[in-house]
Design goal:
The protein has 140 residues and is of the alpha+beta class. It contains three helices and nine strands; from the N terminus they run ββββαββαβββα.
Length: 140
Amino acid sequence: MNSIRNLAVGLPVRNGQVLAEMGQGKVKGAKYLRALGGVGETAEAAMRREFKEELGVELGQATLLGVVESIFDFEGSPGHEIVHVFAVESEDIDAMALEEQLHVMDEGSPVGWFDLASLDRPLYPEGSAALVRSWAGLGG
């Protein structure tokens, strides 16, 4: 772990569903979800830019839910992140059907809607699921 990475992520929520990127570890094969976001400018600006670059959507209101610190191991490499977690709104995203599966434009990773009350896999960064559940009125 050479440095602490500072990033910002956004979680769109609609009808109790959260939009997140799907992933699967190469070492253990475990499925997971990852909030979309990025690094660079200010936290909110980086997150907005990444939604535009990754999904081609503009964001409306963004509400900072909190900041989480994540120390983890990903495929044998340690990591340390400080993450600003936002709930985000978007007319572009609201126009999409909940059954619709999207893909991150630069890498092709699938993005879909998942029931916040009963996620079947972890949502990273750690702590973001509790923040967005609380914001959506679904408890922590």
